[in-house]
């Protein structure tokens, strides 16, 4: 290690998070590269049999095989762990890989899992269509009804799971209050922090046991690759690591490199997404065609006091419903826009728009969609980093289609 790097390593833990997001990660190799290297190799060699045995049998820390460890992936984990304030981090091939691995590692047949109704459609599909087959009991609860969680926790439960804000209804779970309830009742509490990222919300500091990410979203920030992560105390992440190594839902080195670069600009991007989303949400709320805007940055949000306590800003995602609107109206709006990308992804510098009832949540039963508050007249926008004036003009194109068709 160069003398300069040694000096930096000694002081990096005392630097601000903005700086750590750029400077924590991989040690520089003897090639003296400036940007982090990508280790595109499936396995690693050893100088002799004893060193190899030490790595395999005693976990000496030397890399073995890319399904098990890779320096670029480890660098991403180190950087994200610092930002989330986590003791340990494990990376996965996708956000769903992180959710699957967490449930596989911590639950067994007969366990009860409590889940917020406000979760990503595939998360609900995973538990309802697959984990149920292996004997998990799933109970769905409103993200905002703490009394219901308290009653549910009065019977033994293994794991409680939520996303906050919820997708796409932007309801907020009180992380601290639910953490306290879970701790009292000996239940593991897992929070998907994908919408906020550690820049805007820190679930572990509020008492959660594990944090999950779909890195595919804001951690990348430009819609390029899939990935996920699980973070928390080392003894809680270790079983997840063990499942990933056997189950093979590993993050690739290339994707880890993209996320390392994404983390370098996360702070500045999350603040900019939040500012632009607030401006667009404020404009949407004034439009005659709009029934209701769901955005965590608006003063009118019914959980404003909790938002101010728990989050640094509203983030980039908002949803709105059309006054007296139908599915056809929502589709007409979407079909008449052209700047916003018609796609289900979010967390991109490019603004995306979708109709949740027939896309992200389209494979759910109608009864589940109703339970989740996903109406046919609801549109979700994940605000990117384009000019808000241009986004407003695109929404005007969408609204003008409604006028023509009414
Ligand atoms: C909140 C949330 N969690 C998890 C996922 C799943 O992530 P991935 O698509 O990376 O598997 C998504 C995907 O949209 C999401 O929005």
Largest sheet: 7 strands, mixed
> What's the number of extended β-strand segments?
12
Q: Any idea of the CATH topology of the largest domain? A: Aspartate Aminotransferase, domain 2
Within the largest sheet, what's the order of strands? Answer: 1-7-6-5-4-2-3
Round the Cα radius of gyration to an integer and report it. 22 Å
Number of domains: 2
End-to-end distance: 69 Å
Structural class: alpha/beta
Strand residues, percent: 5-15%
Q: For the residues shown, what is the average pLDDT?
A: 96
Contiguous low-pLDDT stretches (5 residues minimum) are none
Work out the helicity level.
40-55%
Order of helices and strands: HHHHEHEHEHEHEHEEHHHEHEHEEHEH
Form type: globular
What's the CATH H-level homologous superfamily of the largest domain? Type I PLP-dependent aspartate aminotransferase-like (Major domain)
What is the number of helical segments per DSSP (H or I, 4+ residues)? 16
- Tell me the CATH architecture of the largest domain: 3-Layer(aba) Sandwich
Ligands bound, unique: pyridoxal-5'-phosphate
Can you tell me the CATH class of the largest domain?
Answer: Alpha Beta
């Amino acid at each position: 290690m160069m003398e300069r790097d040694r000096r930096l390593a000694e002081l990096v833990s005392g630097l601000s998070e903005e700086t750590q997001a750029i400077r924590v990660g991989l040690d520089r190799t003897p090639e003296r590269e400036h940007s982090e290297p990508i280790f595109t190799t499936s396995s690693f060699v050893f100088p002799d049999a004893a060193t190899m045995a030490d790595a395999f049998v005693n976990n000496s820390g030397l890399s073995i095989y890319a399904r098990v460890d890779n320096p670029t992936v480890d660098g991403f984990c180190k950087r994200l762990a610092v930002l989330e304030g986590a003791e340990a981090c494990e990376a996965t091939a996708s956000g769903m890989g992180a959710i699957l691995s967490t449930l596989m590692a911590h639950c067994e047949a007969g366990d009860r899992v409590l889940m917020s109704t406000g979760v990503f459609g595939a998360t609900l599909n995973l538990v309802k269509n697959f984990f149920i087959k292996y004997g998990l009991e799933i109970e769905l609860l409103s993200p905002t009804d703490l009394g219901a969680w308290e009653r549910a926790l009065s019977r033994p439960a293994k794991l409680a799971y939520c996303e906050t804000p919820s997708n796409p209804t932007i309801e907020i779970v009180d992380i601290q209050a639910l953490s306290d309830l879970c701790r009292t009742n000996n239940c593991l509490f897992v929070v998907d922090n994908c919408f906020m990222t550690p820049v805007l919300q820190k679930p572990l500091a509020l008492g959660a046991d594990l944090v999950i990410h779909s890195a595919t979203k804001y951690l990348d920030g430009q819609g390029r690759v899939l990935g996920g992560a699980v973070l928390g105390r080392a003894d809680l992440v270790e079983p997840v690591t063990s499942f990933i190594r056997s189950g093979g839902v590993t993050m690739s080195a290339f994707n880890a490199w993209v996320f390392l670069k994404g983390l370098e600009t996360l702070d500045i991007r999350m603040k900019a997404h939040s500012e632009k989303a607030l401006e667009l949400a404020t404009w949407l709320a004034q439009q005659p065609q709009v029934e209701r805007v769901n955005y965590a940055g608006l003063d009118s949000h019914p959980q404003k006091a909790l938002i101010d306590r728990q989050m640094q800003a509203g983030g980039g995602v908002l949803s709105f419903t059309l006054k007296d609107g139908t599915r056809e109206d929502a589709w007409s709006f979407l079909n008449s826009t052209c700047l916003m990308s018609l796609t289900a992804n979010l967390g991109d510098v490019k603004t995306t728009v979708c109709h949740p009832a027939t896309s992200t949540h389209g494979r759910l039963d109608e009864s589940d969609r109703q339970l989740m508050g996903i109406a046919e007249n609801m549109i979700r926008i994940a605000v990117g980093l384009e000019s808000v004036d241009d986004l407003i003009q695109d929404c005007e194109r969408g609204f003008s289609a409604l006028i023509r068709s009414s």
